[in-house]
Specification:
This protein is an alpha+beta fold. The chain contains 5 helices and 7 strands. It starts with 15 loop residues before the first strand and ends in a 22-residue tail after the last helix.
Amino acid sequence: MYRRLRHLQGIDIPRCFGIVYMGEFDPALLLSYIEGKLLYQLSPEELLSSTLLEAARTRTEFVSPMPRSDIANPQLLPQLRRIYSALAENGVAHGDPRLDNFIQTKDGRVVAIDLEFAHLDPYDAGNTDELNSVLNLMGNTVDFQSLNNPAVYRLAKEDYKKRMAEREDQPLPWHPPSPLPSMSGNKAAGG
C-alpha cells in the first residue's frame, strides 16, 4: 500500500523506508517517526469547532442534528478532507478511522498513521464514510456536560482511551497468512 501511496509519504502519511526482518518470519515496515499529538489527545478547543463547544456550554438543543462539518475544528477539517481525498484518488480506504490514527504535528499538519487495515476501495469514491466516522468520533469524545469541568473531561478522555485499548485486545477478524514453506525441499525448484 505504501508503494501505491509513495507520493503522499512524508506529507499525509509516514515515509516508508522498507521492510525489516525481526526474525525468520517476522517482517515489519520501517516508518518515519511523526512527532505530535494523536487527535484524541487534543483539548476540546483544539479538536472541536467553537460552534459545537458554545452549543454544549450553553446547553443549546438543536432542532436538527448538527452538520458534521460543524463538529471539527475548522483548522482540522480541511486537512482530514485532504487526506481522505488523496487516499480516494488512489482508490484506497484507510480502513481504521479512529482519532488515534491521526497525528497533529507541532506545525499543525495532520498525518494519517496505522495503515495496516488500508485496502483498495473503488466504491467509496471520496472516502466519505470513513471521514464521517472520524467526525462522529470527534463529537462522541466529548461529554458535553464535562466541558465546564476539566476533571470530568479528563475522565471522559481516559474512558475513551480505555475503550480503544479494549478494542485493540480483541482478536483480529482475520488470521495472518502462515509462513511460506522453505524452498530447499522443493524438488520443482531443483532442490
